[in-house]
Give the backbone structure.
Amino acid sequence: MNALNHHPDKKYRSHTAEELLQDDFFIHSATHPTEASETFWRRQLENGDMDAESYRFARQFIASVQVRSETVREDEKEAMWKNIEARNRASRKKSRRRRRLLYLSTAAAAALLVTCSLLFLRYGAAGEEAAFTRIEDVKPPDMQVENIHLVLSGDKSVSLEGEEAEIAYREHGIEINRKTTELKKEPTGSAVAYNQLIVPRGKRSTLTLADGTQMWINASTRVVYPAAFSKNEREIYVDGEVFLDVAERDGCPFTVKTKTFSAEVLGTSFNVTAYENDDEKSLVLVSGSVKIHAGDESDILLAPSEMYTSANGSAQVQTVQTEYYTSWKSGVYQYDSAPLEMILKRLSRYYGLEIVCEPQVTALKCSGKLDLKDDLGEVLKGISLTAPVRYRYDYDTHIIIHK
């Protein structure tokens, strides 16, 4: 009997998706499934003899390829491999086997050239989302939100009224404001399902992920995270400001990605401020350690009480008092010699009301503490007591700060 028509007498426990995609029997099973081969793979999964996520990713990868007569361009090969490596970062082995992946059907269909469609440009030409989108490329929903929105994979969307929300992933399901909802968590091992939490201006939220990591999410922030973490890595994307208390898990680093840098940790607490529309982005480490990756720059290892700042192509690290950057999660805003323009920008996001600062007062430096539980009028009164400024409302939609 041909070796491709019966299952090999071996286990696949340690196989990564890359290794599965170079296994003749696996390729043949995926391209020409039979009842026997499907039973074999199902038992491998049920008995825990292989990694479920690697299996699903490899099967879906094969399903996404198409047979074409033209040759794959070099830039397509590189794009494909960047995405394969993103999924296999924790366990991939750098070797010369890369180019062999282009011939997935060597044993299964030697007469055909199986080439890979560009996963981001060609898959879903009819409007479907790419199956293996990198987390930083997940797009926000095409809608304007006034309430906090929890967007689940499968186009489920939940609008949460009120200024604050508490969301937690538990074993029995998803809790919202400490009440179990009818929403169900996606099964563990779902390789390409992403959820999003969108917190608009004037709102705040907390989010407890399935691994126990706790997040405090500030206004005007979007967080993207997998429906289920893999066994080897945890990865989220942040556009905005969050404070994280990361649950430690041996051998499974936690990575926070932003538009300009990423931070890798094992178990620590830190504050990330990375609004995509702001030039300056920062990370303040409270405890533990964080490794910063930023483009082609050398990795930067932060110690507690250090702040990494990136602005206009340059980066720096300095020692700071962490409470000035983390107190917002407790409803207090502390600042020391901070430009008034920056203070008012934070207040505008926090309270959800546009604040316009006249040019002659933007550079004024202020120090103090504001109670964010007070209404905005009281907060601005506090500022006017420490700086030579006044404020006025403009048609109930803007506040103008002037000397």
